[in-house]
Structures are given as C-alpha cells and as structure tokens.
Amino acid sequence: MELTNSQYEILMREYQDRQMEARYALDRRKAEVFAAIPEYKQLSDSLASLATEKTIASITNNTSSAQNIQLTIDKTVGKMHSLLTESGYPADYLEPVYVCPKCKDTGYVDHEKCTCLRQAEIKIRYKPAYLDTIFNKENFDSFNLKFYPDNIKDEISGKTARESAETALEVCEECAVALCEGKNAQSILLLGSVGTGKTFLSNCIAGEVIKAGKDVVYMSAIDLFDEFSKSMKRHEDDEPFTQLITDCDLLIIDDLGTELANSFTDSRLFYCINSRMISGKCTVISTNLTFKELLGKYSERIFSRLSSSYKMLRLWGDDIRINNK
To answer: Cα(202)–Cα(186) distance, rounded to whole angstroms?
Structure first.
C-alpha cells in the first residue's frame, strides 16, 4: 500500500523543513565564527574564489594550474581548521547537523529510500494513529500484576495466573531490550482469553522498539490478510508490502484467529512465520485461541513452526478491562 500523494507531500515537506533548519543553524554558527575570528572569514572568502579559479582551470584543461590551486585550497582549509580549534570551537562546528546523517535529511541514499524514510512511511501506513496515545498508558511500568490471581493454579503448567503473568512480562521485556539493542530476539506467541493482557504486552514491546527507531509493523490479523489480498490483486511479485513484512525489525500480529480462515490466509500466515524465522526476525502474535484450537484452525506446518520456534506465553484470569472499570 503506497502513500497517497498528499501523504507523500506532507512527508517530503517535513524533510525539507529539516534541511532548512540545518541550513539556518549552520548559518548562525558561521556568523558567530566570522564575528569571533575575522581571519577565518577572510580565508573563507578566498576559498570561494579559489574554487572558481580551479573550475576555470579544469574547463580549459590547464591541469598544472588546477593542481597548484588545489594545493592552495588544501593549505587554506588546514589553516581554517587550525583557527577554529585554536579558538576553542569543536573541529566539526561548521559541519551541517542533520536528523539523519545517512541521507542528510533528503530521505534518499543513492536514489534508494533511506531507512528513516521507510520508518516514517511505516508510521503513516501501518501503525494506527491511536498507538502513540496507547504507548503512554500501556507500557511495562504500568503492567499491573495485581489483576492476576495468585491463589489458583493451572492444572497443566502448575503455575498461578500471577506466576504466568510474571513470566510473560519478563520474557516480553527481554524481547524489547534485545530488539532495541539490535540483537536477535525469540518470537513470541501470546495466548489467552479476551482481556487477559495479550494486546497490552504487545503494545509494551512495540512502544519500546519504536522509540528505539526500529522498523515496527503492527497489524490485526484481519488487516494483515486483507493487505496481502490487495497485493495479490495488483499482481506485483515484489510488492513493497510483502517485502516490508519480511524485512521489518518487529512484526506484531494482533488477534490471530479473528480472520476468515481459508487456504489463502493459511499460506500467507505460513509465509510470515517461515520467512521471518529463516531471516532471524522477531514476530509477536496474540490470539484468543487455545493450543487445540490453533491446531484445528491452521495447518500442521504452521503449528509446528509456532510450537518449535516461538516462546508460548499463556495469560489467564478474569477480564482485566472489566475489573479495571
């Protein structure tokens, strides 16, 4: 799904504003240095004249003259550098300062989209606008274990609801830390009935990873498969959305099992799980389905990948949203 023209124009205006601010800031620093070091200003003016002379010499094929001018330029630049540092300024004080040094706030590197531009597009296209507000409320510090009873044990695991929640919280925090540090993190499958905190923990991970500047795609299962369907209808084998799903640092699929199950959704889900597993990318999936329901709804190869490669975390207890009210 490409940005609309208006979305792209707004995004490019933001990049233009960044470049303009960098130029204004540099001009202010230059004026400061010129006032403090008059000789630096004189050398700067002579440098501009030397550059013009070199250009003329190069055009007229006067190689010897061009080489001599270059030597003078190098000597002038060295003198300017010495004047700057001797006056107490940092060596890079008159270098432009960009939000993204990689693309110099143009959004492109060698005619390819910079990672900062791809991240900006992701925030517009695939991160619901309400998430920014949610991250302020739903984070690891606000995850409250008091909503999970510690007096009833699960017959299968032998753990109480609170012990299970403590484990889930610890694993999700470790996952977020690893991703923020650029390390590999094990994929996670969050299971549990409605209102037990699965989406809350997904939001916690997403919030930390997005703040660290990583590529995060956060979609409901219904929206994910709907976008895959649109990609197929466009008949584009290298459709950007498919590539994004494969390459993003973190993919979060919320409410798996709410989509209409068929051979298409089954194949696309296997693609997501398998391709990201092969490339070592982390995926977080939440579902209201039980283990038995997962096995019945999806193919054996999908269940095999989930059970062998994902850390399965089960949350249980009463609906927290109701209790919280």
So the answer is: 14
| Pair of tokens at residue 285 | 């999936």
> Whole-angstrom Cα distance, residue 60 to residue 8?
44
Q: What is the 3-state secondary structure (H, E, C) of 181-223?
A: CCCCCCEEEEECCCCCCHHHHHHHHHHHHHHCCCCEEEEEHHH
For 196-220, what is each residue's pLDDT tens digit?
999 999 999 998 998 888 888 888 9
* Rounded CA separation 214/177 (Å): 12
Q: Which residues contact 241 (CB under 8 A, 6 or more apart)?
A: 1, 227, 228, 231
The token pair that represents 187 in the structure block: 């994929």
Q: Which helix (H) or strand (E) holds 318?
A: none
Q: Which position has the higher pLDDT, 52 or 189?
A: 189
Contact 76, 50 (CB under 8 A): yes
For residue 142, the 8-state DSSP code is G
Q: Rounded to an integer, what distance in angstroms lies between the CA atom of residue 238 and that of residue 244?
A: 10
Greatest CA separation for the chain: 90
List, for residues 156-212, the tens digit of each pLDDT value: 778 899 999 999 999 999 999 999 999 999 999 999 988 899 999 999 999 899 888
Q: Is 39 or 136 the better-scoring residue by pLDDT?
A: 39
Q: Please list, in sequence order, all residues whose beta carbon lies within 8 angstroms of the beta carbon of residue 281, skipping any fewer than 6 positions away.
A: 246, 247, 248, 249, 250, 251
Task: Extract the tokens encoding 174.
Answer: 């470790």
